[in-house]
Design goal:
The protein has helices at about 1-5, 25-30, 50-55; strands at about 15-20, 65. The chain is of the alpha+beta class. Strands 1-2 form a two-stranded parallel ribbon.
């Protein structure tokens, strides 16, 4: 992602990544069948960071990695 952001720095294209984290989806249920799906957020509640990156306040933000959910104590955050 960073290499692509660097290659496109003189263009209007922005390159970022956004990790949605755990969400209440069918794919998650299939991958982790013993997990209590009701403890996970609904995917619709995770959209604000995606929308924010599309808006004017994110103009000029490129080459960054973000997390849609706060990092848990067992994982590290890559958001900047």
């Amino acid at each position: 992602m960073q290499v692509l952001a660097d290659e496109l720095e003189k263009s209007t294209v922005r390159v970022n990544s956004l990790n949605p984290g755990k969400a209440r989806t069918q794919m998650r249920r299939q991958a982790y069948p013993s997990e209590d799906i009701n403890t996970l957020p609904n995917p619709a509640t995770l959209t604000p960071p995606f929308v924010a990156l599309l808006g004017p306040q994110a103009r000029g933000v490129t080459g960054c990695a973000f997390d849609a959910q706060p990092a848990s104590s067992s994982s590290s955050s890559t958001g900047t």
